[in-house]
Amino acid sequence: MTSPLPVGSGAGGEAIIMEIFHIGFLTVTWMDVIDVLLVTFLFYRLYVAMRGTIAAQIFLGLLIVIAGSLLARAADMKALSWLLKTLTDIWVIALIVLFQPELRRLLLFLGRNPVIKFFIRFDVNEYADLIVGALEEVRQRGEGALIVIIRTTDIKLFVDTGLPIRAIISKELLVTIFNRKGPLHDGAVVIKDRYIEAARCTLPLSPVERIGQKMLGTRHRAALGISEQADVVALVLSEETGQFALAQSGRLAMNLSAEEMKSRLASSITGVAKQSAQEAKRTRDYALEAREAFDR
Q1: Where are the domains positioned within the chain?
Q2: Is 0.90 topped by the overall pTM?
Q3: 124-295 sits in which CATH class?
Q4: What are the C-alpha distances in Å from 187 to residues 18, 154, 155, 163, 219?
Q5: Using one digit for the tens of pLDDT, what is the confidence trace for 176-193?
Q6: How far apart are CA 239 and CA 271, in angstroms?
Q7: I need a labelling partner for 157 at 20 to 30 A (CA). Which of 83, 134, 223, 227 fits?
């Protein structure tokens, strides 16, 4: 039966820990259960990160050394216990060096965890400046680009059609990906939070082929198509005209300036920034024309 177990005392009163059960002299509390679950989770993530690598064998060797140290200490083998303890102390430093890739993967997983991200904010304007700045540099080289930024909907089905990148977003990396001479410039780049998930992704094409008198290119139809199926923001840089366009919720805003692109992107990410009346009217006009073209 669960009963309160007082532990410690002082001016502030007694701390109360809920006892679960007794096993002989051993008392198990809820804090013990949470402690074990946390350690189990950390070891599981470490195993997943190291699975199939040489680090797994090294980690097994470390566990053997630690187990040997405990046995030597229990048997009162002082010389062997001292030797194994010394090795264990050295292994702490060796772990950081040997397990650097695995530790990086583990930290990357923690950084992507929704609970952690709730406490970590990033500058939306700086984020928009970085992406649009990369597109401006790509435009100066006379090349095109298509970027999809995930908001809430999972588009793993389309991400899996491309080449996994899973790298922290940077202007240099985006410019390199859209280099016409590189193998990744065709298709879309998919971004989630601060990370480039994949490049060369294939997106569904919208059935809308023209807006008014203007024919839509493949990039524009792909941007419109993915925005019709998922909660994303799709950015387009036309290789033919060098014009920016942004698609969201089945609406395509074209012929945007760099500043308009940044403003709309920041607004789309935060969901709180307001469009000017002119920008809102332009979006409605394009959406209406797209629907009329589709109905025809």
Answers
A1: 24-112, 124-295
A2: no
A3: alpha beta
A4: 57, 18, 15, 10, 8
A5: 999 988 888 888 999 988
A6: 29
A7: 134
